[in-house]
Amino acid sequence: MTDIAAALWTVAIIAAIGNMSPGPDFVAVTYASVVRGRASAALVALGVVFGNGLWAGAALFGVAALFTLFPTMFVLIKTAGALYLCYLGYKLLRYARVPYDVAGGATQSSPWSAFRSGLATTLSNPKAAIYYASALSTAAPASATWFELSLMLTVVIAVSGAWFATVVLVLSTQRAANAFRRFKVYFESLFGALLLGFGLKQLFAK
Questions:
Q1: 155 Cβ partners below 8 Å, 6+ apart?
Q2: Alpha helices, DSSP H, located in the chain
Q3: How many CB atoms lie under 10 A from the CB of residue 40?
Q4: According to the model, what pLDDT value does residue 141 have?
Q5: Core-most of 9, 45, 128, 159, by most CB within 10 Å?
Q6: What is the pLDDT of residue 43?
Q7: Helices 174-182 + 184-204 axis angle, to 10
Q8: Banded pLDDT at 42 (limits 50, 70, 90)
Q9: Residue 144 contacts residue 7 (beta carbons within 8 Å)
Q10: How many angstroms separate the CA atoms of 167 and 26, rounded?
Q11: First vs last C-alpha separation in the chain
Q12: Distance (Å) of CA 137 to CA 6, 13, 66, 149
């Protein structure tokens, strides 16, 4: 196996572990899948995947190094992202007991709003840039060309897309929607608590 082939496999494994680990991205796509329906959830997932691609691309182009050189920049972005996650969690907790409109079906949102919510959730975590920088710099051969690095970025996007597409397909079924209708207060309280927890953890993390 050539160096670049081994590097691509390594990147794929690292990207899979990063995307499959429970986090704000997973919560956002899961919630959209069981509440908004498959089409809207797919757009949220697309925003998440695009955000992962941006962070991975930023790692390739050295933005993560800027965070190291200018820690204040990182702290500001991290704080803004943490507050955004806390806001999302608070909204879910606040409206968890509001009855679900069965007659109206799944909660709808515009395509742009759905995509934007997924993108914003991913970009609210600048640590992803550091994660991808570590993964790509560790896996990439020392002599890797820009084309080879672009292949690595493509692998990250493909793995992220495959994982979140699976999440949407599995959780946007009618059975999942029915379960949400029955246990809305518990689902939204759980998702809200998770997002609030992720936000507070990021806010106070060193």
A1: 8, 11, 12, 15
A2: 3-20, 24-35, 38-60, 63-69, 71-94, 111-123, 127-139, 146-171, 174-182, 184-204
A3: 24
A4: 66
A5: 45
A6: 96
A7: 90
A8: very high
A9: yes
A10: 8
A11: 40
A12: 14, 14, 15, 10
Q: Mind listing the pLDDT tens digit for each residue in 184-201?
A: 788 888 888 988 888 888
Query: What is d(CA 51, CA 57) in angstroms, rounded to the nearest whole number?
Result: 10
Q: Cα(112)–Cα(6) distance, rounded to whole angstroms?
A: 38
The rounded distance, in Å, linking the Cα atoms of 62 and 29 is 28
Left if phi > 0, otherwise alpha if psi is -120 to 50, otherwise beta: which for 62?
left
pLDDT of 105: 43
Encoded amino acid at 183, one letter: F
pTM for this predicted structure: 0.77
What integer best gives the mean pLDDT of the chain? Answer: 81
Neighbours of 24 (CB within 10 A): 24
Rounded to whole angstroms, the Cα distance separating 200 from 88 reads 12
pLDDT value at position 67? 65
